[in-house]
Fold this protein.
Amino acid sequence: MDARRRTSVSLMHQGEANAKRMETDRMKTMLALALLPLPLGFATGCVRVKTDPIEVKPIHITVDVNVRVARELDSFFDDIDRTDPSMQSPPPAQGTR
Amino acid sequence: MKANPATNPRSRSIPTRLLPLLIACLGLAPLPTARAQDLAAIKQRMAQRVLDIAPLKTDKTVGENRDGFLELLRQEHANQAQPLVDAENADRRQVYRAVAERTQTTADTVGKERARQIAESSAPGVMLQREDGTWYEKR
């Protein structure tokens, strides 16, 4: 009779221990799920840093085109402008000053 | 039943089918721009015209607008000045187109850049147009 009671008490202890372990496992899983978006946040930050040079590029291209246009115009109008009394001096090309 | 080749559009030959496309392409093709020989001729004409235009600019009959073209400002001198202005602007337009093609930009952009150059290097007394459309005398 005493032995049977002891067996049932030890089974109860085992059940409690199992329940505690399951709860600990569940909490660990929840914590892991909660921390999952964190690296994604860092990744988003990295992408933003990479887009900055792309925004600068078109400005550079525009300036380059303007310089080329100014040079082409200079090479065509330079002689004409030199003989024009309504002009002070040959116009300076953009970006070559 | 055999399809009649005259009425069935699928049976038309490929050149017949491509004809409308070809016509459309020819219609949409850009106007031919000035060649090197043409540009040399334009340059010569402009050089000859410079001494006729300069007095018109200094007495404010014409001004240099914001798009790189001459513009008649005093209508009382239109008979004398307008043909000269038209001829000069036609040649400038050709030059701007040629430069635009070479630099892979638009004739408008080239014209605006030329207007900037003219505004910078014009002698005092020449009338110039600002970006907002108003006119001022170069000091």
